[in-house]
Specification:
The chain contains 10 helices and 7 strands. By secondary structure, it is an alpha/beta fold. It has one domain: 3-Layer(aba) Sandwich (Rossmann fold), CATH 3.40.50.150. The protein has a 7-stranded mixed beta sheet, sandwiched between helices. Helix 5 links the parallel strand 4 and strand 5. The chain binds S-adenosylmethionine. The site of S-adenosylmethionine (SAM) has 22 residues, from strand 2, helix 4 and helix 9. The site of S-adenosylmethionine has 22 residues, from strand 2, helix 4 and helix 9. Its main location: nucleus.
Length: 301
């Protein structure tokens, strides 16, 4: 394809994205008299190159440890703060939060999933984590505008931080604090020498297992079969995870959200692509230990 026609195709794709965003926002609730509707951000103004090297040194501030994350800045109304604070992240200020995020979207991109999850889980704090700055800023603006436009009734339980999750997940989440983790349409890093940059590796799965509660789930979806196979292979081989059978997930609303509701999923659907997904859960180690003991006893009887 010639450069000019490639650019025109890209522009058309961006226009469709902005259009589908503004359509989904028209359904927002009405405002109190006297309140001004906030402008929604446009994706086309927050584009940047697709990949940032997660192995590189990025100068993004990171909280010293989990006691230094002030979640009230992200979810003010859950902490009795009436307005929001532009969702700025505060670093290196000790602030033990009673209420912490339990659902996380790793590599949340433009944040479509957060908005889908917000109403389904109104009492949970949901956090998007994204490495690209302009994209994170888009999500911050979209959350703020959506809160304002709903008269501060909706989207109070979603937030976002800019961070490299490959290096910082333990700075944000305490041991066994998460219920659900989404890793959707992850960057495929096709070249063999770049497989170590993938967001699911044996090492990273051990990190995720540390932050997940027993029974907590990892949801994956992708339109790249090779990446799906890689993700499944690593989770199958990991001793702390087991696959959730499909009959158990058929009524789980998250499956529809993750395969149809994220920004990437919508793009795949528009282009007629396929999506593969999986759900794994953190094993109950106590139960596994007992089962093994029973097997040993049976063996010797
Ligand atoms: C292809 S996009 C998918 C976005 C979103 N999950 C969706 O389904 O629409 C992958 C996203 O992961 C982000 N990402 C990649 N590596 C990351 C890392 N180490 N930490 C945080 N975000 C990362 C990228 O910047 C990109 O926005």
């Amino acid at each position: 394809m010639k450069r000019s026609s490639m650019e025109a195709a890209k522009q058309r794709e961006q226009d469709k994205d902005d259009q589908s965003d503004s359509q989904s926002q028209q359904s927002q609730g009405s405002l109190e008299p006297g309140m001004k509707r906030a402008k929604m951000p446009k994706k086309s103004k927050h584009r940047m190159r697709a990949h940032i090297n997660p192995m590189g040194d990025l100068t993004i501030p990171v909280p010293m440890n989990t006691d230094y994350v002030d979640w009230s800045l992200h979810y003010p109304s859950f902490f009795g703060v009436p307005n929001n604070n532009d969702d700025k992240m505060f670093c290196n200020k000790e602030q033990k939060s009673e209420k912490v995020p339990t659902i996380v979207d790793i590599g949340c991109g433009y944040g479509g999933l957060l908005f889908e999850l917000s109403k389904e889980f109104p009492n949970e704090l949901i956090l998007g984590m994204e490495i690209r700055d302009k994209v994170t800023n888009f999500v911050v603006q979209k959350i703020n505008s959506s809160r304002i436009n709903s008269g501060y009734k909706d989207y109070l339980n979603i937030g976002v931080v800019r961070t490299n999750t490959m290096k910082t997940i333990h700075n944000y989440f305490k041991k066994e604090s998460l219920e659900k983790m989404f890793i959707l349409f992850a960057d495929p890093h096709f070249k063999k020498q770049n497989h170590r940059r993938r967001i699911i590796t044996t090492q990273l799965l051990s990190d995720y297992a540390y932050s997940l509660k027993t029974g907590g789930k990892i949801y994956t979806a992708t339109d790249v079969k090779e990446l799906h196979d890689w993700e499944v292979e690593h989770m199958e081989l990991h001793p702390l995870f087991e696959r959730v059978p499909e009959e158990e997930t058929k009524d789980d609303p998250c499956i529809k959200f993750m395969t149809e509701g994220t920004d990437e999923a919508k793009k795949v659907a528009r282009n007629g692509g396929s999506v593969w997904h999986s759900v794994y859960r953190k094993k109950d180690l106590e139960k596994s230990r007992n089962e093994i003991q029973q097997e040993i006893v049976k063996f010797f009887l």
